[in-house]
Amino acid sequence: MSAAGGRGPADPRDLDATKREVLASLGIWGAAVSAASASGLLAKLPPRVVAPLIIGGIALPAIAYARSPKLKALARHVGIHKLSLFHTWRVVGTATFLVYGSKDELPSAFVRNAAWGDLATSVIAGALAVLPRRRSTYVAFHLFGLSDFIVALATGLSLTLRGDARMRTIASFPLALIPLFGVGLSGAAHLIAFDLLREPSIEQPGLS
Question: What is the pLDDT of residues 24-72, one digit of tens each?
Fold first, then answer.
């Protein structure tokens, strides 16, 4: 682990082993969502079940992080800067939602709230590559990015409860990978970032 708070540096071999475990877990997670959506299994679930699955996808990795010193050490090794740049991938979510929306396979209200929020988040994440590395900047970014997920989730749940059949598309392949894999991973990354931002070392110049 980092030297902050009296912790010594993590053993590189331990970090490599943890990276492999994380990548393997992510591979299994993504494969499970792909299989469940491509087979039609997800589509057979009641639409109201999707929102709890999305929330669980955020909560479970965050809980695993909170309980694992190895995952905390890996997060400190990666650093708040790279963890923030990771969110540039959300432009993929924007493009995906816009494509489905253009075919009227998703409600326009959901596309508007989910797609444009993802686009704004990905653009800001890219801008972090050149902006000064300040705690306040990272806090503002992660608050915005997490808020985007909350708005999109609330919109989707509202439309589902109102019986908009187009929300069932969320359970289809490959779209299901966005809410049931990408959102979980990114949401957990936001929560991990907030934990890293509590550490005094975040103020040091040249923050990784």
Answer: 999 999 999 999 999 999 999 988 888 899 999 999 999 999 999 999 9
Evaluate whether residue 141 is within a structural domain.
yes
Dig out the tokens for 25 from the structure: 């877990």
Tokens matching residue 81: 């800067």
Asked if residue 183 lies in contact with residue 54, where contact means CB atoms within 8 angstroms, the answer is yes
Cα separation, 155 vs 63, in Å, equals: 25
The number of beta carbons lying within 10 Å of the beta carbon of residue 133 is 18
CB 169 within 8 A of CB 100: yes
The CA distances from residue 198 to 107, 119, 202, in Å, are 39, 27, 8
Question: How far is the C-alpha of 126 from the C-alpha of 123, rounded, in Å?
Answer: 5
Q: Is residue 2 part of a domain?
A: no
Nearest alpha-carbon partner for 22 in 64, 81, 79, 80: 64
Distance CA 106, CA 85 (A): 28
The total of structural domains in the chain comes to: 1
